[in-house]
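Quick one, tokens below:
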């Protein structure tokens, strides 16, 4: 994702890529990792990168373990944040929101920057009030560290909120395989798949008497996330505080 973001920013006429941070490549030039990128040394930490590159916006696609270091470090220096890393808890969101307010620096955190994925969530929320059963099946590449995905969690939470009550769920009395029913949120069964050959897919299945509805989003490459990332970069400094999700930016575009 980091390389894809770098390439997308370089291709955008209204943006300038100033540098990158990755502790795994501190002895490398950014141009060695991504052809055409600036010939600057990759910084080891966010603090070092901000001091060296003086950015206006930081885009973070890292790991859950790095979230609560990277984002506060940038916000305290007045650098707006666009965050695609997932794995946030409600407590972490509250902390980031407080820091945004205290530092008067905005941030966008989105579980998914794909336009299609956000439409999938929107349609699932609309259907949630009209059908009584629901399940979410999400599939990601083998290197994704968290499960379920942030998109699956956000989808389930929004569907449950729109419905105002739990979905119907059927109790299974005998299991031949532990965990076969997946996890559950608000009566919605959530299943996660991790395997090579997949980028990021999600299917929402809703059921009613004599019918089912499937809302499916499939990605074939990481470039699918770039229109949303670029939109967030363009809009984030116009915002106030913390914005969670891409839908608010899409509505106002």
């Amino acid at each position: 994702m980091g390389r894809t973001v770098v390439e997308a920013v370089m291709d955008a006429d209204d943006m300038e890529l100033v540098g990158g941070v990755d502790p795994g490549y501190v002895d490398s030039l950014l141009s060695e990792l991504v052809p055409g990128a600036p010939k600057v040394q990759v910084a080891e930490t966010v603090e070092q990168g901000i001091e060296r590159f003086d950015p206006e916006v930081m885009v973070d696609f890292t790991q859950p373990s790095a979230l609560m270091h990277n984002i506060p470090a940038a916000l305290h220096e007045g650098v707006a944040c666009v965050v695609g890393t997932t794995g946030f808890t409600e407590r972490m969101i509250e902390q980031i929101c407080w820091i945004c307010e205290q530092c008067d620096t905005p941030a966008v955190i989105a579980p998914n920057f794909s336009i299609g994925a956000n439409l999938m969530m929107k349609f699932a929320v609309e259907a949630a009030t009209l059908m009584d059963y629901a399940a979410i099946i999400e599939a990601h590449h083998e290197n994704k560290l968290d499960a379920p995905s942030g998109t699956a969690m956000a989808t389930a939470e929004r569907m449950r909120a729109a419905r105002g009550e739990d979905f119907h769920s059927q109790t299974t009395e005998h299991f031949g395989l532990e965990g076969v029913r997946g996890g559950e949120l608000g009566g919605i069964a959530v299943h996660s798949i991790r395997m090579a050959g997949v980028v990021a897919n999600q299917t929402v299945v809703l059921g009613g008497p004599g019918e089912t509805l499937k809302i499916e989003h499939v990605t074939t490459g990481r470039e699918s996330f770039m229109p949303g990332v670029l939109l967030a970069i363009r809009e984030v400094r116009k915002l106030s505080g913390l914005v969670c999700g891409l839908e608010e930016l899409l509505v106002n575009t």
